[in-house]
Design goal:
four-stranded antiparallel beta sheet, 7 helices, 2 domains, 12 strands, alpha+beta
């Protein structure tokens, strides 16, 4: 990405912003003969990032009550038999979260998030991409793939994994079990050095942070910002989208509705009106990540 908005707060960002990598192609999601009404007029994306170095991630697979509450029996068996049970747990979690964000958009509103209702179907790791994708200019392969079943649809996912993080990407698609074609979903990640948690802390209440928010965000955008990480991911996603659209970033806003934080998908406004892009945001620990896809242009 050639241009990033660097937040002017007490937190600092790593100089290297990494793309998720890989290439995937969406098809139109399809509705079955029964079930909810799905909105499928354009590509919809969801993402989720897990900071594996966050202390809260360690040893979670040993909490069997948590495992049985969140995961279907087949998922739990797969997780507990894995060589890295904690890693497998958080991969399943990230896939569920990413798929939930897509389903929320397909339905037009977020459903009740019962984690066990979103069942991860693990697949083989897809082959590395051979070409760069989007404005990131990089085309690394994914480390994990599969789909997430919810009611009568399957949401495909891919995930990039290393020792420090898991970043899962999901999108509205029709054939998650097929080969990986090419598409234009742009992604990015960064680390926010400073607060070690994505929970609100003293920085959130400081005068400097309030000034920073007022300078960099509109009133509508500020309503959905609840932590420094929440601010950083919006700034970086907004800058990346502006770069892709080749326009002044000040014309864009990334907003959410009036529902409780985390319950309403973010939306991009262009000059105050719905923009030609679908966006997903995620942050955990010191990691922030975003994904977006442009609506097809009329010709």
């Amino acid at each position: 990405m050639s241009r990033l908005a660097r937040p002017a707060s007490s937190s600092t960002l790593e100089s290297t912003v990494r793309p998720l990598g890989g290439r995937v192609t969406p098809n139109s999601a399809h509705a079955g003969t029964a079930g909810p009404r799905w909105i499928v007029d354009r590509l919809l994306v969801g993402n989720d990032i897990i900071d594996l170095r966050d202390p809260r991630c360690a040893g979670k697979s040993r909490h069997l009550r948590f495992v049985s509450r969140v995961f279907h029996s087949a998922e739990a068996s797969r997780i507990l038999s894995a060589a890295d049970a904690d890693g497998a747990l958080w991969l399943h979690w990230a896939a569920k979260e990413a798929a939930y964000k897509v389903v929320s958009k397909l339905l037009g509103e977020p459903p009740v998030f019962e984690h066990r209702a979103f069942v991860v179907n693990a697949g083989p790791a897809p082959a590395p991409a051979s070409h760069p994708t989007g404005p990131t200019g990089l085309g690394a392969g994914f480390d994990a793939s599969g789909s997430v079943s919810y009611r009568n649809v399957k949401i495909p996912y891919r995930a990039a994994i290393d020792a420090g993080r898991i970043h899962a990407l999901a999108w509205s698609g029709e054939d998650p079990d097929g080969p990986v074609p090419d598409i234009g979903i742009s992604t990015g990640e960064a680390r926010v050095r400073g607060p070690g948690s994505d929970k609100p802390g003293p920085e959130d209440a400081s005068d400097a942070f309030r000034v920073f928010l007022k300078e960099r965000f509109t009133v509508r955008e500020r309503r959905s910002i609840h932590s420094p990480q929440s601010a950083h991911v919006r700034l970086m996603a907004r800058a990346a989208i502006a770069d892709t659209l080749r326009m002044d970033e000040r014309r864009l806003e990334v907003i959410c509705g009036n529902a409780p934080t985390g319950r309403t998908p973010p939306r991009v406004l262009l000059d105050g009106l719905p923009g030609p892009v679908d966006v997903s945001l995620s942050h955990h620990g010191q990691r922030v990540a975003w994904a977006y896809a442009l609506a097809p242009r009329e010709v």
